Fold:
Amino acid sequence: MYEYIKGVVSEIILDKIILENNGIGYRINSTMNSAGQIRKGDETLIYTYLVVREDEMSLYGFTTRHELEYFKHLISVSKIGPKVGAAILSTYTPQQLGAYIINKDINAIAKSPGVGKKTAERIVLELKDKVKITPLETLTMEPELLKLADAGTDHEVLDALMSLGYSRIEGEKAIKAIYNEQDSTEELIKKALKWLVR
Structure:
């Protein structure tokens, strides 16, 4: 019904965006990743998806078509609703999620809120043929973050930065900028904080 809405961001509430267009404020459910890319007062375009159910109508929206497509893929998986789909895309960018699906990394996907191991297995099973991103692309996008994931410290560093009020996107940029595989988690956190307040 709605392809996109262009307007001014009047408010951001965690993963919800209030977008004003012609005097109407649209409450758009989104992700932490999309919400972290815009600021109050910005004029922006949000790609939207209308969810219609017996008891409610909800609008979901994203700053990129890529994230919207992944959202559609996720809600096509059995037993995954729009709230869980958005939560997964708040945990991982489409590129990261695509990499985990291709590499069948069930444990990583299962770390998303509302997703257990069985649901993660269904995501891999049902989406492995729909994900168009190649393993080569995922490795060239964020090698530092992929190394961190292998080391099991990605969530510790990112969680620490986010608990201090930084967005996921800010945290990932900082990690990418300062990453050294010789550093401990504690050292990485200190270096990331120093980079963020530079």
